[in-house]
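Teaching note: in complex prediction, the entire set of molecules is handled at once rather than each chain in isolation. The prompt given to students was simply: 'Predict the structure of this complex.' The entities are:
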Amino acid sequence: MSAGAADFTSLRFSTRALSERERIPLWREEIGRSLLRVDIESLSDLPFHAEATLRALPGLRTVVYAGSAVRLERTRAGVADGDNSIGIIVNLGESGAVTQRGREVALGSGDAAAVLHEEPATVAFAQGSYLGMLFPRAALASCIKNVDDATMRLIPRDTEALRLLVSYVRLVADELALATPKLRRVIVNHIHQLAALALGPHGASGENGSGAVRAARLKAALDQIAARFQDPELRVAAVAQSQGISPRYLQYLMETSGTSFTEHLNELRLQRAFALLCEASARRVSDIALEAGFSDISHFNRSFRARFGDTPSGVRGQARGASHDSRFPSDASRPTSTAQTRAKA
Amino acid sequence: MAAQRDPIRVWREEYARCCLNLDFEPLTGAPFHFSVTPIFEDLRVVRTRLSPGFVFRDEDLVRDGDDNFGFLISRSRELDTTHQGREVRLGFGDATMMQASGPGSAGSRDSFGFFEVMIPPAEWDARSARPGDVIMRLLPQRSEALQLLRGYIRSLEKSRLNGSAETREIVRRHLIDLVVLAATLHRPIGESNVSAVVAARLAAALDQIAARFHEPELGIAAVAHSLRISVRYLQRVLETSGVSFTTRVTELRLQRAFALLSAPGRRRIADIALEAGFSDISHFNRLFRARFGDTPSGVRGQVAARHGG
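The expected output is the structure of the full assembly:
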């Protein structure tokens, strides 16, 4: 890869050396027309001044702007470029507002809102300092159920994902050359994920991110548990590690399936013990418990009775009495685990 | 001595709780002091500060069976680390890595501090990265991935994350990605998942543009033609660098003009603009001022003044 001058990735714009008359026209020409397709208008009686850094990476465009109070407008003419990116605007100054589709969102310092770049919109900042980001629609749509619904809502300044997003993007937008394509790709992907988190619904549900990815992870974790439940030492940490996720996240995944790791593990062991007891052999109950993954016999006995309403030897006796011509209980007679059923669904 | 034992044990217990079983050996008679700041427990990210001495894992401690990789980022001017028979001295912001399954130490004659991030072995496998290559290698502070990682950790420290499980999982993955990038990207080889063909095409295109940008007539079609690829394909290749053809050519011309203006000699600005590839002087003037915040003659004057006329 070539180095030096050929490897720059950002564009700076400064009005310092421009005459007052040509500042706005040159902005329009250099930035408004080619890079952002956004018109600019000074809201101040003082001469327009601005320092801006624009950056275009594959999958991410950023603007860091400091200067005069301004009104930025995505006009009907601008929209004609067909760019359907999703914008996130963060107010780094004191007060601002975004308007689109007849709705207005007031932005205090640090607040943000998302806009549809494919429709007319205006943004006004009294103290001109803001961070703008443009994301390809597809990059966010794959993480958020309904991108359109996520726009024109206040993203309050104390939103964790927003704060992470802003500090990440500022590092990328101001300072770093991001010299290798791999670095760029990973970083832009991170920024997409944080943007999706910031845009997604907040609160108790925590339902961000892709449901399909979550379901796949849950399924993989359940498979792993199903393969290893007979190991009495099996812990949540070991399963999480084998899946490359954190124990906390695994527990969360299990909760979304309506059970817990321990409950699910216990259920699999009890089912196995039940099946072994129904086989025509005279193995000791304690051996069966051990094979099913229990290490504590009295714990096994208690759980078994609570689960099946009978003692292990009681179940064995019934199975013997019922199965003169069939050695195995039918599958239908066995309760299935909720977690497994849901993961398959 | 006895009075110093207790606070050390307190530090040890706090550190073990949020990161790793370590012990501490004070170096001088100076009073022992410490701080431990857990930053992100899902990945055992912690910041600690200690009085002069060194932290270590010895043959006894490694029996705890922890085999995670400890990524260490220095927060002091000098941090001496030893592990696997090698020594590395870290400056402020530098990083290195050790594996918890083997003995190792980190310390300084002065008060010192560091961030530590614990990465499970499986995470390296999942990213097809080999942690063994990184152990006890000095990763310099200015590495971009390392800058991003430090920035990420600092912003986590500031915001005291207590988000949803989903948020925490995403953050956990980001941190691991950045550690793996910091550990692997500075190596001269093994770059990129962009296909080698695209990377080679991009390099060739950038070389072409760098060699020919001063031709006022240079268009994307000419470059595509000389590379024997289509214009559309060249655009796609250039997109992987994040900068369009026009933006790149303009920037190269402006930088060339800037360099020529900074060189001694009193060539006319119009000639310089022409040599840099601009055919319209007023267009050049405006672009130059917007880019560098000064007029071409202003830049020349400044350079001349700096060199004493």
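Point out the following to students. The two ends of chain B are 67 Å apart (CA to CA). The first helix of chain B runs from residue 2 to 18.
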